[in-house]
């Protein structure tokens, strides 16, 4: 049988918690009651403006090629893309099975994340870029923000070390790098970049420094 004093303390604690919850609900109801028609109209107008801005963004992104996973055919095109879009995932590939696996996942993510430009570039046909960005292992994803390579996904090592990784695993990795908008818990703690940030702004001198 429980000690009467302990029982009384427990009951008081439960009542205190219940009262706090009840007070919070009462406060929220009171706040809603205080909203008049003008307040509701302001909230409605604010929401409409937010929706309008998002529609304008989506239209601009679509015009820049977002929403599709496409191949760019020259190094010159690469520089044009990274200057036009704030967030770019570029797959440096060659004709092999691992790169085809990466293609499959990126094709899905490109449609899910219209805020980011997804593209691929044949590394063997782009020797200047491959050397400048130190691309050795294929596939390699260059994660580019504001015209600078901020991070890399090299091979499948960070994706379980197998070609059977899921699209969600790749999405989470890109989310951690903040190159896509990702609502998962893991995106709350951005990974420290494993590579030095390298500028990808076009240079007329192939021997120029990689950093600004």
Automatic annotation (TrEMBL):
Check the record and name the CDD domains matching this protein.
Phd_like_TxnDC9 (cd02989)
Ranges of compositional bias, category Polar residues: 194-212
The record places domain Thioredoxin at 72-156
Q: Where is this region: Disordered?
A: 193-212
Which Pfam family name is an example for this entry? Thioredoxin
Q: What is this protein called?
A: Thioredoxin domain-containing protein
Q: Which organism is it from?
A: Escallonia herrerae
């Amino acid at each position: 049988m429980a000690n009467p004093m302990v029982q009384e303390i427990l009951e008081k604690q439960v009542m205190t918690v219940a009262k706090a919850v009840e007070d919070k609900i009462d406060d929220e109801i009171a706040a809603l009651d205080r909203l008049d028609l003008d307040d509701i109209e302001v909230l409605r107008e604010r929401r409409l403006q937010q929706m309008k801005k998002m529609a304008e963004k989506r239209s601009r992104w679509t015009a820049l090629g977002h929403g599709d996973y496409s191949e760019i055919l020259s190094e010159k095109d690469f520089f044009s893309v990274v200057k036009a879009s704030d967030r770019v995932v570029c797959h440096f590939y060659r004709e092999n099975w691992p790169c085809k696996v990466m293609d499959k996942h990126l094709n899905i993510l490109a449609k899910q994340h219209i805020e980011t430009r997804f593209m691929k570039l044949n590394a063997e046909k782009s020797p200047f870029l491959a050397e400048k960005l130190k691309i050795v292992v294929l596939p390699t994803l260059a994660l580019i923000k504001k015209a600078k390579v901020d991070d890399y996904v090299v091979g499948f090592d960070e994706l379980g070390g197998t070609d059977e990784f899921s699209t969600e695993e790749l999405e989470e990795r890109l989310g951690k790098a903040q190159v896509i908008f990702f609502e998962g818990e893991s995106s709350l703690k951005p990974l420290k970049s494993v590579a030095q940030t390298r500028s990808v702004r076009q240079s007329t001198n192939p021997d120029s420094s990689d950093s600004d």
